[in-house]
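Blinded run. Sample ID left blank on purpose so nobody reads anything into the name before looking at the predicted structure. Input follows.
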Amino acid sequence: MAKLNLCFYTLFVLYLVAFLGHNFKLCFCFNPKHVNLSPIATHWATAGATWYGNPDGAGSEGGSCGYGKAVSQAPFSSLVTGIGPSLYNSGKECGACYQIKCTKHPSCSGKPVRVVITDVCPGCTSESAHFDLSGTSFGAMAVAGQQEKLRAAGTFEIQYARVACDYSGKTITFQVDSGSNPTYFATVIEFEDGDGDLAGVELKEEGSSGGVESWRAMQQSWGAVWKLDNYGQQLHPPFSIRLTSQYSDQTIVAKNVVPDGWKPNATYRSLVNYGL
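Blinded prediction complete.
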């Protein structure tokens, strides 16, 4: 009887697993590339922290990601950071958002602050991760009124966690690089909500009369700048731009975002963003 019950139980379990697998696509694997980041930090790690630039500034004027004066303006609002090479990843992490907090100094508040990667700190390699924060970001970790004391502390340990970016409904913008011309197009891409960084960018010419319109891969030029070199052949605006998130693989399209008659140094705002 015991063997019969064991047999019945085994068959029941096998049936249940098959049923769940068929109806609910049961999977015992985990793929972080398809999980949306949370705006709230859940996995904290340790890093070194320093600050640079003016005490109440945005670090450098723009930094290596190419955001320029935008780093000191809303929505960045100087809450930005340079990062060591391990997290900068040759500029692929430009625009990624992190929460940081400190507890190792009497002036630390212990409250998390969200910062955006806008620069690199090439020499910050003594720890596995290092944040070279703007003066504003560094001071934001302090107890109210003790920002100067915290900045005077020099280098110390902080905690950090990757989180979703939140630009409060702002749409993605494209700031055309000053070197762009009718056969070469480059743009700084700003304010990606959610994951914050990009795995791929593609461009489609809508104004071409030469046949089938198709998406063409752009190359990361440096930082947050992506380019398409048409090698002497004229490009045909308006341009649509398709963006693929690096973390979740989500894709969105900014249709005809760069108009006919576009100009270098101009900024064009899309109607889309991740999560909208």
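Unblinding after everyone has recorded impressions. Residues 198 and 245 are 5 Å apart (CA to CA).
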